[in-house]
Description:
The structure holds two protein chains of two kinds. Chain A is an alpha/beta fold.
Amino acid sequence: MITGTDTVAALEDVRRTYLMGSNEVHALDGVSFDIERGQYWSIMGASGSGKSTLLNLMGCLDRPTTGTYWLAGRDTGSLDDDDLSDLRSTHLGFIFQSYNLIPQLDVLENILVPIYYQDEPAPDAEDRARALADRMGLSDRLDHRPPELSGGQQQRVAISRALVNDPDLILADEATGNLDTQTATEILDLFDELSAEGKTIVFVTHEAHVAERASHILRMRDGRIEEVKVQR
Amino acid sequence: MTATRVFTRSLRAGVRSLALHKLRSLLTTLGVLFGTSSVISMLAIGEGASYEAQEQIKQLGSQNVILRSVKPPDSPNDTNQTSRVVNYGLTRMDRERVEDTFVGIEKVVAVREIQQEVRVKNRSANPRVLATEPAYIDVTGRMVWEGRFITEEDDRSLNNVCVLSTELARYYFPLESAVGKRVKIGPDYFDVVGTVAPRMRAADDPAPAGEEVTGELFVPYQTAMRWFGEIQVKMRAGSRDMEQVELHEIIARVGRGEDVPMVAAAARTMLERFHDKRDHDLIVPLELLARAEETKRIFNIVLGSIAGISLLVGGIGIMNVMLATVTERTREIGIRRALGAKRRHIVSQFLVECVLLSVGGGALGVGLGLAIPLLVEEFADMRTIVTPAAPMIAFGISAGVGVIFGLYPAWRAAEMDPVEALRHE
Lengths: 232, 425
């Protein structure tokens, strides 16, 4: 398939089929779209619509049953487990609903986890991590453990962690779902900032006002794309 | 990132994960701890026991063949006699046969044991009084402490001289040298001409009870024959036992070590031919030594298996806890995988924790294993020897246990589906 030089991720007729007993369940039933660098996509859909499956596929945690998924110029279908791990540690940033920090590591170490797993980490990775923490207002919390932080602070650590490897694609899964309204707004403003800086973001949400901030809104239904709305 | 940094980081991460559950980690190490310490202390006790046995055997003289008189069991028809003379044991003829007919013999020494009270002023005791020949000191390898041993001249001239073992000398003459003093053996006075170093107590000798005096007193053979004769009288309640024993012990020293089995066989044949009663015993220290080696080997196998089983149990304990830990940390595994950890990163993470547990247990076990032999020496009065290899072997095995029993849990962790793992609550 031919993709533009600025295409970060491309899906072409991606299907993902699970076997539930003897029944085949089509979690994704022929999904195709391209994400260009700097775009901010939000993915909406009811539970069971396939949006989690889509996110797992885009995050290289899962592979399509058929169809192709290109990430950072590589066809993920031909990659083995180690190569996919390399893609995750160098080209992807994950942000989860429940933060998913590692409790026994302190803030700085948590931010650096993707760097630990890189084969050739940048020598200035730690400086980068400190700068990110500084930007997120965490510089006086670097030696704290996650349980000592508020939800908003934990999510800022998680965002720093997702940015530390300067990823091509940031995947956020209900990233504000566990936060109160004010903190959620702050985090969403931060996403807007990142988008404005040219980061490519995919944000899964079920809240319309969250999705409204994105440049593209993709609605999923029964494993298919219901509509893609381009906002700007 | 350099390899050493990666190593120190995963080490630190492992320590930190274990520190989250200090009590659990400590309890997990107990199996390996006790396994390791039992390996070390068992080896030390075994080593000490065999060393002691070998020392005792060597003291008998590995080139010696020892013939001893043994009182044969009473025949039932003469138990109602009140007074009788029992005649048994080795004879002077036996001694001559050994000396004249055995090939490869260097020296032969005869020993008679005499039942007499030994007095010095108001101190009295019943030590072993041994009538023997000058060569005794060479054949048994005992050391003259002070003065001299019995000489040919003493024997020929029937001199009333004696030699004390040092512990006996200390008992009779606590404040001064025994040499030049006199002791009364039975009715007669003897001049002390020397002292010899004490014999190491053999395992089958009864321990000295309370005030009992241990030790030996040596007198010239001919002198003893002259003064005490051949019949020993033992007083027992209601009866007198009289024994006639010519010689209590014949020690033959073999010139070359390889001739010992031949001489032993000859002595066995001779005793069987000339004695119809079982009134003798043949002791071949070299054979005992071989048997002691065999016993030690079996001992080591038994101890080794026990210790091996305890390490196995310890390893299974670690595996059990690690499997539980892997399940408990499923989500963490999912997070790490999502952030780019490869399978081998997960494997090494859990393997490092296992090895830390087992090596930690092993290190504590080495400490305990070195302490137990000291306590055994202190309280059980047993000799123990910790060879330098024992702690190293035990420590190495414990580390190996960590790797072997950590592999399966680590593999389980690495094989998890990242999506499933992330969904795990």
